[in-house]
What we know:
Radius of gyration of chain A: 20 Å
Number of domains of chain A: 1
Largest sheet of chain A: none
Order of helices and strands of chain B: EEHEEEEEHHHHHHH
Oligomer: heterodimer
Helix content of chain B: 25-40%
Structural class of chain B: alpha+beta
Order of helices and strands of chain A: HHHHHHHHH
Radius of gyration of chain B: 20 Å
CATH topology of the largest domain in chain B: Fumarate Reductase Iron-sulfur Protein, Chain B, domain 2
Largest interface: A-B, 47 and 50 residues
CATH architecture of chain A: Up-down Bundle
Strand content of chain B: 5-15%
CATH architecture of the largest domain in chain B: Orthogonal Bundle
Shape of chain A: globular
CATH class of chain A: Mainly Alpha
CATH topology of chain A: 3 helical TM bundles of succinate and fumarate reductases
CATH superfamily of chain A: Fumarate reductase/succinate dehydrogenase, transmembrane subunit
Number of helices of chain B: 8
Shape of chain B: elongated
Strand order of the largest sheet of chain B: 2-1-5-3-4
Distance between the termini of chain B: 58 Å
CATH superfamily of the largest domain in chain B: Alpha-helical ferredoxin
Number of domains of chain B: 2
Number of strands of chain A: 0
Amino acid sequence: MRSSFAPLNFWRSTIGKKTVMAVTGLLMLLFLIVHMLGNLKIFYGRTEFDHYAGWLRTIGEPVLHGAWYLWIQRFVLVLAVVLHATSAYQVSRRGLKARPTKYSHHQRAKAGYATHVMRYGGITLALFIIYHILDFTTLTLNRHGVEGAAYDNVVSSFSVWWVTAIYIVAMICLGLHIQHGFWSAAQTLGANRPSRDRLFRGIATGLAVFLTAGFLVVPIAVLAGLVD
Amino acid sequence: MKLTLRIWRQAGPAEPGRMVAYEVPDANPDMSFLELLDVLNERLTLEGDDPVTFDHDCREGICGACGVVINGQAHGPRERTTTCQLHVRSFADGDVIDVEPWRSVAFGVVKDLMVDRSGLDRIIQAGGYISAPTGSAPEAHSTPVPKPVADTAFDNATCIGCGACVAACPNGSAMLFTSAKVTHLNLLPQGGPERAERVLNLVEAMDAEGFGGCTNTGECTVACPKGIPLDSIATLNREYLRASLGRK
């Protein structure tokens, strides 16, 4: 039954959940673009990179006290991840329940690979985010693990081949997720039109390649000895 | 032509079903797919077997009654073609063809290839109408409709409600069907008074039937015999968002 509280109805509907997924996805995408560009500062050397990493913790000062901005951003991002995953889980579960019987004659999907792997990719990325935070935020899994020494922490992690391998797999998942996700968000938010469809698909592919390549250039450079 | 049909046989809604192979040695390439089933049924009847139950009505591709999944594709291999308009010549001599009912939790199997699509009717009841004064038809030019709007509305009005979109969707979603109704009626000035209520009611009814959500895979639009585009789903989303924000 429909409630008199409109946001509740919105959240209960499949389209509402998809909208939440789209908006939180775009928010995370925005963060990732800034994150990736910031990472590239490592190529300017230890002093500049560590200084940049330190500044990230003090953005907003002196208007905001200490690391307030950092914690606001962390809260917003965690909220985005939680809402994104919750709506994805609920919509996926609904979809699986709505189609309990498979066709005995297998239907070859018309949709591309990126669409096909959205759910697996999303789970992989969620696990990766946890690993990534343990590696570079809490430094629990970091081999160097010295707070404030961002440059050396990065180099120590990516000097290990299998850590770099994890990052490569995760970033390919990220690229595929964005390739379908960005266009899908445009569709879900009703921004897509026949005249804009190719544009949105193009931006989606562009963002996917840009982010995957931009994120991977750092670990690969470390492993290749270009950054040490 | 000699064809082998592997058909889903199920005696009733609660009965277990299975694929059963039948040979049709005397198939004519000019038959429609439904006529192929007719030929098989005639033989089954004469042999004292239970004929295969399937839905059909106009047999000219405009009523939306027929529809089975042929070799994993809703309405079979030809684009923009209903099962009744699909001809046996689309297959090769000696082919083994799998014939299954639409699969979705919202479409229960009634018998064999016939499914209960009344869920789509209940969606229509929730908002597939306009308020119009009764009496003689109004002067056509009294309500101007821009040509592109009329064209899009008409394209969406060609939806025959066959349910192929639901059958093709990996999520069993009825979004393409619902979006065709919303796009058809919400774009036209005649549908204006119920614009917001319509989309809210249709989506609520759609969700209540147990159809899955849209994950933008695009399988529906490929299966649609009327070529309802994926853009209609973007329009549905836009209309839903607009109505949810309280705009009339």
